[in-house]
Each structure stands twice: as C-alpha cells, then as structure tokens.
Amino acid sequence: MTDRLALAGIAAASFVLAVLQLFFLPLRFDGTLLPRLGDWPFPLTAALAAVTTPALVVLASWHARGTLGAASPLLVWVGTLLLFAVLGPGGDVLLLGDWRTLLLFAGGALPGAIAVGGYLGRRAGVRGDHR
Hints:
Elements: H1 2-23, H2 44-63, H3 67-86, H4 99-127
Helix pairs in contact: 1-2, 1-3, 2-3, 2-4, 3-4
C-alpha cells in the first residue's frame, strides 16, 4: 500500500513540475521577473526538467514492481506537456513555437528515458536475462 501511495505522490510531483516548467518556459531577461539584459530568452525550466524527471524515475523505481511503475513519472510528465499543448487553460496555447519547447521536451524526456533504461538494465541483471 505504501509503494502505491509513494508512486501516486511521485506522479503528482511529476504533473506539478511539468505544469510549472510550462508556465515558466517563456522566461526572459526582460525586466519583468528577471533583470533587463537585452530581452534574451532564459529557458531555465529545460535544465530543471533534465534534473528532476530522471530523479523522479529513479525514485519511482525504488517503489515500482514493474516497468510501468518506474516509468510513470516520465509518462505523466510527457502526457501533461502534450495535454497542455492541445488543451491549454482557457483555450490558450502554452507551448511556444520555437526552440525552447524542443529543448524542454528533450531536456525532460531524454534523461528520463535513460533512467528508465537504467532501471530495465538493473532489473535484467538481477534476473539474469542476459542473452
């Protein structure tokens, strides 16, 4: 029961992080939230996704009994981004039409997929499924 509760909490954290990363993706050095430095884009959330998504996958793998449980933070994160890409709140589109969106997807999905692959490799090594 505690493993399922932990996985649900990790999935909820993944959802919240995906929403926050989407909301702060357009962050710029424009003097509004960050200092004015030439209006340069500052996609900090892509770097945050590159750290938090695989960390959540590793944390979920400690509580998971199968691959789906271990991959659930990554699936929730990608699903949240895709959901908000299609159905933004109030009909707004949250994903930007430039390189920052690609960077966010790559920054979260690739390290997360590598973490899932690491889980599968460790699991195969424990069972002795070497071919």
